[in-house]
Amino acid sequence: MGDDPVVRSTEGTARDDEKKDFKFIRWDAKGMVAHLTLNRPKQNIMNIEMLVEIAAAIDGLSTREDVKMILLDAAPECEGFFSMGVGAEGYFSQMVFQMMDAFHNVFRAMIEISKPVLAVVDGVASGAGAELAAFCDLVVATENAQFRQPEIKLGVFPPLGAVVYPRIIGPHRAMELLLTGDPIDAVQAVQMGLVNRVVPQAQLQETVDNLVKRISDQSGPVLKLLKRVVFEGTWHPFEQALKHSQDLYLRDLSELEDSQEGLRALIEKRKPVWKNR
């Protein structure tokens, strides 16, 4: 993905997190859709510094109530690749803890920020790159996309993927993916629920723009609460997740001006006007 017209057309106030210079990512957080681009050509192999940058960029949105969602993609210079995962150094004992900690911090940031994350995969996503895409809330892929978890062939397994995949695609499919290390193409990925949509490359920009607009047109606080409830419903015990969902609905959601506006608009048969609070 290159310039995103949805992001470019959204006005915003310059802030410190928008102006920060990164070495391995591009970061545009000026509008209501923050745009994070993996930018370590050509294969977007992730080192610790790159992972720290990704987590820092997402963490920087913690006070940004105006930002409604995050768009994650790869730089045009990385044509054919979303990310080939972490470098070989990340598998050796002297580096594995630091690499794993930095990688998991990215996922913690994505959870804690509670803003929907849309991944755009146009090429190969392998190892940690495939895990990163899988952990996003939505995934749009092109027909060129391919997902790989080859760790078993190296005598190891992906610790995060082993937890994430059974919840996303089911335990049987997850076991086949992880035990064989065989790649899956875009069609297989959408069939098993790993991605939401597969589109021709020529239709990618339009598809992403339309989806981003449909989501960012909604109330920001409601999107944030919804992500929290869905995440906890997926990852936490059922009774605990159900109780927390009920508490959030009665305590937080009902107090939002946007929730009250939505009900008024329904009664008055008009389109709601969100205040994002």
What does this structure look like?
This protein is α/β, with parallel strands linked by helices. The protein has two domains: 212 residues, Alpha-Beta Complex (2-enoyl-CoA Hydratase, Chain A, domain 1), CATH 3.90.226; 49 residues. The strands form two sheets. The chain has a six-stranded mixed β-sheet with strand order 1-2-3-5-7-10, with helices on both faces. β1 and β2 form a beta hairpin. α10 runs antiparallel to α11. The longest helix is centred in the middle third of the chain and has 21 residues. The two termini are 31 Å apart. The N terminus is likely disordered.
The gist of it:
The protein is an alpha/beta fold.
Secondary-structure blueprint of this entry?
Layout: H1 5-8, H2 16-19, E1 25-28, E2 33-38, H3 48-59, E3 69-74, E4 80-83, H4 93-113, E5 117-121, E6 123-126, H5 128-135, E7 138-142, E8 146-148, H6 161-169, H7 171-180, E9 184-185, H8 186-191, E10 197-199, H9 204-216, H10 220-235, H11 238-252, H12 257-268
Parallel strand pairs: 2-3, 3-5, 4-6, 5-7, 6-8, 7-10
Antiparallel strand pairs: 1-2, 8-9
